[in-house]
Amino acid sequence: MSILQTLILFSLLLSASHAAVQDFCVADLMGPQSPSGYLCKKESAVTVNDFIFSGLGVPGNTTNLIKAAVTTAFVGQLPGLNGLGISLARLDLAPGGVIPIHTHPGGSEVLIVLQGSICAGFISSANNVYFKNLNKGDSMVFPQGLLHFQVNAAKGPSIAIVSFSSPSPGLQIVDFALFGNNLPSALVEAITFLDDAQVKKLKALLGGTG
Amino acid sequence: MSILQTLILFSLLLSASHAAVQDFCVADLMGPQSPSGYLCKKESAVTVNDFIFSGLGVPGNTTNLIKAAVTTAFVGQLPGLNGLGISLARLDLAPGGVIPIHTHPGGSEVLIVLQGSICAGFISSANNVYFKNLNKGDSMVFPQGLLHFQVNAAKGPSIAIVSFSSPSPGLQIVDFALFGNNLPSALVEAITFLDDAQVKKLKALLGGTG
Amino acid sequence: MSILQTLILFSLLLSASHAAVQDFCVADLMGPQSPSGYLCKKESAVTVNDFIFSGLGVPGNTTNLIKAAVTTAFVGQLPGLNGLGISLARLDLAPGGVIPIHTHPGGSEVLIVLQGSICAGFISSANNVYFKNLNKGDSMVFPQGLLHFQVNAAKGPSIAIVSFSSPSPGLQIVDFALFGNNLPSALVEAITFLDDAQVKKLKALLGGTG
Amino acid sequence: MSILQTLILFSLLLSASHAAVQDFCVADLMGPQSPSGYLCKKESAVTVNDFIFSGLGVPGNTTNLIKAAVTTAFVGQLPGLNGLGISLARLDLAPGGVIPIHTHPGGSEVLIVLQGSICAGFISSANNVYFKNLNKGDSMVFPQGLLHFQVNAAKGPSIAIVSFSSPSPGLQIVDFALFGNNLPSALVEAITFLDDAQVKKLKALLGGTG
Amino acid sequence: MSILQTLILFSLLLSASHAAVQDFCVADLMGPQSPSGYLCKKESAVTVNDFIFSGLGVPGNTTNLIKAAVTTAFVGQLPGLNGLGISLARLDLAPGGVIPIHTHPGGSEVLIVLQGSICAGFISSANNVYFKNLNKGDSMVFPQGLLHFQVNAAKGPSIAIVSFSSPSPGLQIVDFALFGNNLPSALVEAITFLDDAQVKKLKALLGGTG
Amino acid sequence: MSILQTLILFSLLLSASHAAVQDFCVADLMGPQSPSGYLCKKESAVTVNDFIFSGLGVPGNTTNLIKAAVTTAFVGQLPGLNGLGISLARLDLAPGGVIPIHTHPGGSEVLIVLQGSICAGFISSANNVYFKNLNKGDSMVFPQGLLHFQVNAAKGPSIAIVSFSSPSPGLQIVDFALFGNNLPSALVEAITFLDDAQVKKLKALLGGTG
């Protein structure tokens, strides 16, 4: 067909797509958020690099209390995830490494072991425990919002990739929530039944005050 | 672990949470809305008071036509509700008080009677009527979008708390929609089969024109 | 119009509504569940009582470890809630009563104090603490999935009504999840940094084994 | 490639698709419903006819009180719509025909006029009226859950196609909900402020009792 | 009641509705988008015309390669659709006209034939084909995301109205995606198994390069 | 507290959780599906193995036309994913291997390269191409419903893990949809502009007829 006719047809498609909630909504990380995520960058400013992140190829620093690291590919690191209901992270567990009991308020998780062996589990609202040793290539599901954990079960380092059903699932580690801030010890004790000495010990360990 | 190591671990968590659709999206009520709710206040500006509202402790003014009052704890009064799919309201019904037939376009409702007795009901699309006298402590569900009503069934005042499956469910009272604006009487009559005199009487009562 | 004509019109409406996902989907609690909730009772078997529950009018039994009780009006008690994204519960807190640190995996919560005074709070993924003393009539929001707590702050009993953005939000109390089952003590210690003595003490208190 | 290799590749695709929530979930209209719609027919029993409906090509019978007919292509008539969040209907308006003030509890609506002229409008929760005469080819949006109406504005018959954001949006006509069942007259009067004579007149007209 | 009392009651309703996610969120097309759609125009600036579009009454220009035209009533043309999960379009098919194999990434589609006859079909993930000749008045469903097509089966022009379960479903025509841009021919050949000559021929036809 | 008191408290939690849409809804793969997924296994029959899958540890068979294999961990292989909005798959690409141009009707995708190098890309509704060579450790997002591809860019085998925002995203490969079934050649040619010889060649290659 003639260039003109081509343009006529294109203009239809373009008018439709420009008028649309775009096929994607790359996060404008400098702008405000809405309940559904960040506002979108203009489509004309979007490049392939907004959809790519290389950070999960780099081992996390495990020289810390938990001998473990969580490297996230959430919307803040990978703005093309905005609004898409998915994200990734990498877990590095040194020998003795632990991802302490935690939840992701915003989504479910599925994990696959890339190296080593990991003892992983979750607990249901009925207080039933579901846990098992996972080896290289094994996948495990952690349903939305439930308390769960991962512990290195190998002599050497273990590595896993985890995926979430949200571009920003959040990460709430119970110990940091209870002992890593200024929540008064007396209140922590009341809501956990922990002894005063235990609470003060963990507050000291995790940088909490009060 | 050392403060440095603590900070390393914290920085991971903070980078994740700052990059996230926050755990919450407190409404910036001065800003624009999106289809999913108001844009979020910066997390650094959020305080506990954004999640608290005291207005439901105050009886509503029932010296009006319906001898009743609806006091809302919607996102406009309680900005921490933004994006969370829930809200509250208080119903005060003086003797003879009525919440006229109405709908909430945005959500379902569940009611609990705190004082007195209330005759409450809803009507289904199949025109079946579901209504009953509720006493103190009774709860009742009103499914999304259906016409429903509450009438004081006690000699004294009755009070109820209602909850909605939306931070801003809306409230559309049929009488106000039909008679409280400038919708022409002839049109009101055509779409309701009401007599002209009846329509004009209610327009006068409810401040409508035309 | 004639009865016949009335029936013609009715039959249209009825055919539409019978063909519909009903205006409501009252849970058939004897049947299986789907990810979106229980299967629906036949509309012909539904009565107004499927939408009403009286259990929240009865004080919960607080003669237990936490000196508190949670009485739920979830879909299991109020089948009309099925699929509607909302539910209720009643909190009774005797003097010294506590709802220990917990989450609701399935939804957000809003609370209103009916009697007494309650110290309530939640912690964000960034480990910020949001808590305050609530008095009669005060409401507070607890965003989805975050750890939160309620402690009686009155000399006498306190009562609150809470609403959730799910017909079955779940309730996961951290202490019961960690200490009320057969999760091995060594594993509990690894994922919480608690001392062995502390873990064994709480397992004994909460009926856990291993 | 060899037939064997083709089968290897196919088997992958088939195993994936058979394991899936199918690309579609054609309603098994004889079976139970869930909150998300009817259960699905087995994919092997699905034919192209499950996705096709011819009923909207037939004018509705307008010899009735409202001189109008609503012919639905909801999930009950077009089972391929199940779970897809969309449906259609046809409006036939004879001279003087009216679709009385009504709501669709389950979804939003968009209308396009195919023949004649229609005066259509809706009312917002703020009681603002939005209405206009629509001519052939004009489209109008009716946002979710709001009271709206359509009145024939032509001397001859008018026809429109309407689409909904639900496979079963429901249809609740206020007059039928108030006057077409056994809701007691005294209660109708209390919740509408209508005069007793008016209520009894409309109950007689619409087949209501009590 | 007195005007004052009327105003008291109104002010309640207004405060609620102004505080709300509005009953509707008319798109501010000049502003940014969020994952849930455009930001909303201020309710005070909204008029009935934001909910009305006349463009579907005008035949599309079919003097082009595909002898067909797609005229959209998406959110860009009809801003009142923003956030409502529905939209419309008009298909004009001249003799020999074709809407080539395509998908709508954002939603499902239902089509009704207004004039002529159309051969329409879709293909499932299991590679099953569902297609049929549709005559005037016939409707057909095209489930979300699946490849589908429409071909004029009449000697004269055919017209259809299509509705989508999204205010901006998008439109991705496979030929334009493969041959209408600068995707290198070698890469196109690798991912389609098409011969080089075929790819170069279609790139020339559709304005592609490389 | 006494065992009795413990049981009292437990019974509350259990009654709540048994009444709930469970924390999880493990698929009963033998039973029917709903639009939201499979019906749930009884919680009493659920074991940790319902949440674990080992199949992604095994390389797929790449001795086929595309020199590639897709091994899925969708709900059919990992029933614990049911209703959770997430799944995994493994891509094996032998030298010269290709995942041909395809879509996932049900969700978005994020990919991480575990070994080798992959040229991956997608095309937007505006026909813009976004593609790049990804190395080990690189992640890339493919927004919902858009055509995309992966081609081995390494001399040796490449491996990737992909995650989807659905437990059963589907997989529609354009070549199999067009040439791997009985869609008549004349119709294929009409909706693709491909030459008859090209269509017949690919039908022969992919096992299509007609």
From TrEMBL, chains A, B, C, D, E, F:
Q: What InterPro entries does this protein's entry cite?
A: Cupin_1, Germin, Germin_Mn-BS, RmlC-like_jellyroll, RmlC_Cupin_sf
Q: Where is the signal peptide?
A: 1-19
Q: Please indicate which superkingdom the organism of origin belongs to.
A: Eukaryota
CDD domains named among the record's database cross-references: cupin_OxOx
Tell me where in or outside the cell this protein is found. Answer: Secreted, Extracellular space, Apoplast
GO CC annotation terms, alphabetical: apoplast; extracellular matrix
* Pfam families linked to this entry: Cupin_1
The UniProt family comment states: Belongs to the germin family.
Protein name, per record: Germin-like protein
What does the organism's lineage look like at the top? Answer: Eukaryota, Viridiplantae, Streptophyta, Embryophyta, Tracheophyta
**Underlying gene:** LOC115727321
